[in-house]
Design a protein that fits this description.
The protein has 135 residues and is α+β, with helices and mostly antiparallel strands. It contains two helices and four strands, in the order H-E-E-E-E-H. It has a two-stranded antiparallel sheet. A two-stranded antiparallel sheet has the order 3-4.
């Protein structure tokens, strides 16, 4: 059964994208005080960029992750000369991550995830009712 678009397919793609967004935000929160990474320097905040999934006929049928981008702002410098990662002037480079911003982003991703699970449930029920009518 194809009606030109699939609400289940669209919502499922959004579920995948929002799940990754929640994972990235969780990583940001877990690394809020990480001053040293394997690549050197403090952890850099990351965020997800979405893009529409455009079908061959030009219709939009979902969303996907286009990129995971690192924040290019300079790190937050905190004076702590006793820290093992302090520079010659006694400053430590910390990630530029705002706890409140990350929590709001996490809540938004969670709400979007819930909305898409509801969409899938409603579409499924509509398809089942349509099949019942056809009997």
């Amino acid at each position: 059964m194809d009606f030109g678009f699939s609400p289940i397919k669209s919502a499922a793609s959004a579920l995948t994208a929002e799940r990754l967004r929640m994972d990235i935000v969780s990583d940001n929160l877990a690394n809020i005080d990480t001053t040293r990474t394997p690549t050197g320097g403090p952890y850099r905040r990351r965020f997800v960029v979405f893009e529409p999934i455009v079908e061959e006929n030009g219709s939009v049928d979902g969303v996907r992750v286009a990129a995971i981008v690192e924040d290019n702002r300079p790190p937050r410098m905190v004076y702590d000369p006793n820290h093992p990662d302090a520079n010659a002037q006694g400053y430590v480079a910390y990630p530029r991550i705002d706890f409140a911003t990350e929590i709001v982003d996490l809540m938004a991703a969670q709400r979007a995830y819930e909305a898409n699970t509801t969409t899938i449930s409603i579409a499924r029920n509509m398809y089942l009712k349509t099949l019942e009518i056809g009997r």
